[in-house]
From TrEMBL:
UniProt feature, compositional bias: Basic and acidic residues: 81-93, 292-311
Record protein name field: Uncharacterized protein
InterPro entries in UniProt: RNase_P_Pop3
Annotated transmembrane regions: none
GO molecular function: ribonuclease MRP activity; ribonuclease P activity
GO cellular component labels: cytosol; nucleolar ribonuclease P complex; ribonuclease MRP complex
Pfam family, one: RNase_P_pop3
Length: 331
């Protein structure tokens, strides 16, 4: 049993009907909590701020790079639209020109437009951090799912372990997932991240690395306002989740702050060994406070009468519809 203090939830359900409290009594029902739950890790505020500061310093130049790319993309789209307008006007004004001459003029126009597009100066070289990070809820989810899939194993009767995936495993042994939990609305959008990170940590076959610190995947939820800070550092409108691999520059600085941060784990997914037997979450039984009729027999009879009356009303409505159709057709 859990030693936690009981919490009373007094919110009224939207589907609940108005009932008289005089005919009902308070009862308690036992509900078994889900044992396969993974909680968000508890990270102190000072560690959150330190990690955020290091990540922002690692993202130097990323915002300007993304802004330059967006500016160049908009310029290319404007020139492409201008080229299409000129070609459409030219084709309408030269309908009497033979087909060979028209195709030649169109080819010259396209060549000149392509030359104009390629004359746009390219943006500066992409920062190296972009090769070691993933941004966005969908992209981070795909990355974690791929990691968990590559770690998947099958135990055969000969007690040998064979991988069900053809991949040789990830190239890096550790990574950091930053989730702006306080800024995401609704929170269910990132509610799956603890379970995915726990799956990677529990089923992964990691090898120790002296340069990147402990292996595994860290999950750090951030306080409110972190999303705006990351969005400004990356040059995007919103940044809810970001994943940084251990191969990124300055990752050792992050690992130094994360040494005392617990990594989410799912013990039921780990391969049991003699040194590490399988462990499950202790059983937690919750008491649900609700109400029940004082006279159950009378309540059942009243409910049966209400169902019969509702059935009779539906039947009478079905009989009235053909009569209304007949009268309207006769008029």
């Amino acid at each position: 049993m859990s030693n936690q203090v009981a919490r009373a939830h007094t919110s009224q359900s939207n589907r609940a009907k108005a009932r008289s409290d005089a005919d009902r009594k308070t009862v308690f029902k036992s509900v078994v909590d889900n044992p396969f739950r993974v909680q968000w890790p508890h990270v102190p505020v000072n560690i959150q701020n330190s990690v955020l500061a290091v990540v922002v310093s690692m993202l130097g130049g990323v915002a300007q790079h993304n802004l330059d790319r967006e500016h160049a993309s908009r310029k290319r789209r404007r020139l492409r639209g201008f080229r299409d307008d000129r070609l459409s006007k030219k084709s309408r004004s030269e309908q009497a020109v033979p087909a060979q001459e028209s195709s030649a003029l169109t080819g010259l126009a396209e060549d000149s437009a392509m030359h104009t597009d390629t004359s746009i100066p390219d943006s500066a070289a992409a920062p190296s951090i972009l090769q070691h990070m993933v941004v966005g809820i969908n992209e981070v989810t795909k990355r974690l799912e791929a990691l968990a899939r590559s770690y998947r194993q099958t135990i055969v009767p000969t007690t040998e372990v064979q991988s069900t995936s053809g991949s040789s495993g990830p190239s890096t042994t550790s990574r950091l997932v930053i989730a702006c939990r306080a800024d995401v609305d609704p929170p269910i959008l990132i509610g799956h991240l603890p379970h995915l990170v726990a799956a990677c940590n529990s089923t992964g076959k990691h090898s120790a690395s002296k340069t990147s610190g402990p292996d595994g995947t860290w999950l750090v939820p951030m306080a409110k306002g972190a999303e705006n800070t990351l969005a400004e550092a990356i040059g995007l409108r919103r940044v809810a989740v970001i994943l940084i691999e251990s191969s990124a520059p300055q990752f050792t600085s992050l690992a130094s702050f994360l040494q005392n941060v617990a990594q989410p784990a799912a013990p039921w997914l780990a391969l049991p060994t003699a040194a590490r037997p399988i462990t499950l979450v202790p059983t937690h039984i919750k008491q649900l406070r609700t109400s029940a009729p004082k006279d159950m027999k009378a309540a059942k009879e009243r409910r049966s009468k209400e169902r019969a009356a509702a059935k009779e009303r539906r039947r009478s409505r079905k009989q009235e519809i053909p009569k209304q159709v007949t009268l309207s057709s006769a008029q």
